[in-house]
Amino acid sequence: xxxxxxxxxxxxxxxxxxxxxxxxxxxxxxxxxxxxxxxxxxxxxxxxxxxxxxxxxxxxxxxxxxxxxxxxxxxxxxxxxxxxxxxxxxxxxxxxxxxxxxxxxxxxxxxxxxxxxxxxxxxxxxxxxxxxxxxxxxxxxxxxxxxxxxxxxxxxxxxxxxxxxxxxxxxxxxxxxxxxxxxxxxxxxxxxxxxxxxxxxxxxxxxxxxxxxx
Length: 214
Ligand code: AMP
Prior knowledge:
This protein is α/β, with parallel strands linked by helices and 214 residues long.
């Protein structure tokens, strides 16, 4: 299985799509946001302040966490990156890490979505602090089975501190200025595929499966 880099505006559904790919193709889902939130849970206040304000965390911190994660054995047959790389500097550093570890870049899937549709999704978004599964209380296809507990691991669901409309605008602007240029960075290599993420979870996933060759 090829590794997959998911690129999309915040709340476009990267986490949801990554979880579906993980389940079907049995490759790990690596979210740098989740890796950073795990550092916050261990008491890192600096990261907490940056994430709460919608800014990006420093490249050195993220690259270190990411490199350690992809060196684990479960990544030997490919993995899904959700939230990384977030800017061109990270993409350049990632190319070097791949060369060092003798790994292939794989493909890039862009989840294309209208800003207002993505923003409207954050008001119902809940996630599991234990396994990272994402739910949406405003979407009947994404409800947890039991109240506000994770259907997979029965942990109480939480709302992300940065899921509010003001921080969303800041995160979206960061996406446009820092992350969207990655699409051009990768385009020349012929590995970029764009699918629409404005419809339902299943509609998005169907297109992704077509890209993956099913
Ligand atoms: P996410 O869960 O991907 O929406 O990420 C939540 C927040 O974590 C972002 O708004 C950033 O502050 C931070 N973050 C996640 N991934 C990265 C990354 N690759 N580089 C820098 N900051 C990141």
